Amino acid sequence: MIIDCHGHFTTAPAQVAKFRTEQIAAFQRTGIAPPAAPPAVTDDEIRAGIDQNQLRIMRERGIDMTIFSTKAVAMDHHMGNEDTNVTWARFNNELIHRVCKLYPDHFVGVCQLPQARGVAPGARVIAELERCVNEFGFIGANLNPDPTGGHWSDPPLWDKKWWYPLYEKMVELDVPAMIHVSGSCNPHFNAVATHYINGDTTAFVQFMTSDIFKDFPTLKFIIPHGGGAAPYHWGRYRGIAQDMGLPPLEEKVLKNVFFDTCVYHQPGIDLLLRVLPTKNILFASETVGAVQGIDPLTNFYYDDTKRYIDASPSADTQQKQQMFARNALGVYPRLRAHPRCQNC
Ligand SMILES: [Zn+2]
Predict the structure, then answer these.
(1) Is the whole-model pTM more than 0.85?
(2) Which residues, in sequence order, are bridge partners of residue 235?
(3) Is the distance from CB of 93 to CB of 70 less than 8 angstroms?
(4) What is the pLDDT of residues 257-285, one digit of tens each?
(5) Structure confidence at residue 342 as a pLDDT band (50, 70, 90)
(6) Residue 286 is a catalytic residue
(7) Rg (Cα) of the chain, in Å, rounded?
(8) If pLDDT is split at 50, 70 and 90, which confidence band does 61 have?
(9) What is the rounded (10 degree) CA torsion for 44, 47, 49, 52?
(10) 3.20.20.140, 3.40.50.1400, 3.20.170.30, 1.10.260.40: which CATH number matches 3-9+61-341?
(11) What separation in Å is there between the alpha carbon of 336 and the centre of ligand 1?
(12) Rounded to the nearest whole angstrom, what is the distance from the C-alpha of residue 6 to the centroid of ligand 1?
């Protein structure tokens, strides 16, 4: 069994993105969310997006199941307001739910939260999380640590008033969140090349330097894209924690924080697998995602991360099996109820 914990519906039909463009244009004109309802999407249009893309690639690479969510760069929390973003998140989450219903053996849902710039994630964010988990059977959420799109002007993840109500609900529902920024409206930061990696690294350090996991001992986060800069700079973070008088990272962070394998070259995967404990690594490829080309050095797709793990001398077969499936069941407890995961 091989579970990819990080995939997005980047191949939704064109009317989905068009709806958002028109919704935001209307909001910018009027200052209020337009009343227009999202467009219809047929099952055939959903299948056309999935069959020849994510599902074909999963079959070619031997991936059994993907933990699936909306297109991350299009979550757009920095655009519009809470009203527009509730409509947008609900529409997108319903599409993910339909993908999961059409392909129950292959996709399990994770929800987009209707966060908005300058708005604490309150009742409406929590209501959408509850709807997705309780009604759709989703097993987690994507949490944007910077809904301002690269300006970082909202409070950090340890701000109790801002974030703790959402954490309380995550603990109650027993769902983890993947830290996942969206687009960047700061011209300094390319969205997927800089802003994503900044977001991952920033979240790691905020976890390391705060009491979030003292306050929520069972709360779990996944830091994607291989954990940003954290594994490469593990010595720096261990040293900073030590200088600050903090407990070792194993105690402070690694009971609650997990890292995916969206690192698109062999030496990067070898380092990740060598530096972090096996129990903290979850297989992922983020396909079809930010990097879609073929590496001329290997003649394989950059995002074919299973290939790097298979070839890595940094872990043995048993450790690799743990990263490919068993760790996901520990981090996403609701995944254990899935029929395909009974004997993982
Ligand atoms: Zn992603």
Answers:
(1) yes
(2) none
(3) yes
(4) 999 999 999 999 999 999 999 999 999 99
(5) confident
(6) yes
(7) 19
(8) very high
(9) -130
(10) 3.20.20.140
(11) 23
(12) 6
